[in-house]
Specification:
By secondary structure, the chain is of the alpha+beta class. The chain is about 35% helix and about 20% strand. Its cofactor is FAD.
Length: about 475
């Protein structure tokens, strides 16, 4: 476990700063009580103890700007806080920071039907945006298990992906513009929602994936899509991992997939025990594939069935089931989407890694050999968005180890895992960000020259280094 960099004694801020924060956002929106500090000072990670000095709740861009300017004036760091669902400690305030929560900035500002675009505040919850899109007869496709609590600003901070990336891409593909308060306290309106804008550097893309280290995203222009129709879900039992890639290629040759996920037998056992969901079919298999496609035409469904039969004939699939209605589809999806919530009780040590799809079979074999060698007695839960090369490796904590003992044992293998990631030119963080938990390993994905460029970019936007310090670098 990474040792906290503080004594857990909450810092005492200058009374003048507290007064001026209250003037900026309202007295009732500045919180110093221990419960609020603990709750809003952390995310879903358990590696660091939260220790902020104050939590403020601005309501608009101008109030955010006022807080950032005060932080610069008094030399106090800021940690932006969204839905706090992050898995890399990117939103953890461990060293007396001012936490700037976007919870109040949850309004839909405008909807432009002709542009299929909605302008929202960055504190809008992902599911709230999805519901708004549905009310307009449209669709926001970035989706994942934490959609009910994650916020759009946080999604932008890590360029969140999720379960639909194979068709719809990452968050980056859906951000047409944004308003951001930089670390200097300047307000920038970036791209202004335009699809075509060839006027130099597109700074919006620097903010996406920056984890709040360059500024605070306050408003966002989001592109929407037509709603998918008659979604069908197939769950297939697979005898060995190598077959997964054959199945992916076979289905992609004939269908436009909206999702292609995988998980292992341990994952399905944990979900079934936790939720009571029935097995999709009687056979227990080493691995499972869940794929989704639009079945609005009978010919498409016939293609899917023919491809399934072909995979069975090749020995790539042991058994399978296809949803016949939306209720069945939702139940099958739970086999995949309930994994994270289910294994949370086991204090999992998570790795969120990615490589080119071409390298996935060899990469998986190498990683599996590493964890088998170092952790022969640990339960390993594999799942991920295999259709885009993103794998989630979860090592589950045995009951006889404390959290600290467990994390220390898991850290031993990080070097080997990330050396393997580097071997295949992959990423140490596919969609969860770097935060504090992975910053020591950044060099496995970015070389030293590139990292120095990143540091220099930060200095331009945040010359005093007050914006989410200690994250990424």
């Amino acid at each position: 476990m990474n040792a906290p960099q503080n004594s857990l004694t909450t810092p005492v801020l200058p009374p003048e700063l507290i007064t001026r924060l209250q003037q900026a956002v309202g007295e009732a929106r500045v919180h110093l009580d221990s419960d609020t500090l603990k709750t809003w000072g952390k995310d879903w990670t358990k590696h660091f103890e939260p220790n902020p000095s104050v939590v403020v709740f601005p309501a608009n861009t101008l109030e955010v700007q006022a807080v950032v300017k005060l932080a610069n004036e008094f030399g106090i760091a800021i940690t932006p806080s969204g839905g706090r669902t992050g898995l890399s400690a990117g939103a953890v305030a461990a060293n007396g920071e001012i936490v700037v929560s976007l919870d109040r900035m949850n309004k839909v500002i405008d909807f432009l039907p002709a542009d299929r675009m909605v302008r929202i505040q960055a504190g809008v919850v992902t599911e709230q945006l999805q519901q708004f899109a549905e009310e307009q007869g449209l669709y926001y496709p970035v989706d994942f298990a934490s959609a009910g609590s994650s916020q759009i600003g946080g999604n932008i901070g890590t360029n969140a992906g999720g379960i639909k990336v194979i068709k719809y891409g990452m968050t980056r593909q859906w951000v047409l513009g944004m308003t951001v308060v930089t670390g200097k306290g300047d307000i920038l309106r970036l791209n202004k929602g335009m699809i075509k804008n060839a006027t130099g550097y597109d700074l919006r893309h620097l903010m996406i994936g920056a984890e709040g280290t360059l500024g605070i995203v306050c408003e966002v222009d989001i592109k929407l899509e037509r709603q998918p129709q008659d979604l069908r879900v197939l769950v297939l039992g697979v005898p060995e991992f190598a077959a997964v890639m054959h199945i992916l290629q076979a289905f992609q040759n004939r269908l436009d997939l909206t999702a292609f996920e995988f998980f292992n037998e341990l994952a399905i056992q944990k979900v079934i025990a936790h939720t009571g969901i029935p097995r999709p079919f009687e056979s227990a298999c080493p691995f499972y594939v869940l794929l989704e496609f639009e079945g609005k035409f009978e010919a498409v469904v016939d293609d899917a069935m023919q491809t399934f039969e072909h995979c069975m004939e090749q020995g790539w699939v042991i058994d399978g089931v296809m949803s016949q209605n939306q209720s069945q589809a939702a139940t099958l999806w739970r086999l995949r989407e309930d994994i994270s919530e289910t294994i949370a009780a086991f204090t999992p040590y998570k790795n969120d890694i990615s490589v080119l799809i071409t390298h996935v079979p060899a990469f998986i074999a190498d990683i599996d050999a590493i964890v088998t060698e170092f952790y022969p007695d640990f339960e390993i839960c594999w799942f991920g968005h295999i259709g885009d090369g993103n794998l989630h490796l979860n090592i589950l904590k045995p009951a006889n180890l404390t959290k600290d003992e467990f994390f220390e044992k898991c850290k031993v293998v990080n070097k080997h895992v990330f050396e393997t990631v580097q071997k295949y030119d992959g990423s140490i963080s596919a969609e969860h960000g770097v935060g504090m938990t992975k910053k020591d390993y950044l060099h496995y994905t970015r070389d030293e020259v590139e990292i120095e460029y990143l540091r220099e970019i930060k200095k331009v936007f945040d010359p005093k280094g007050i914006m989410n310090p200690g994250k990424i670098f």
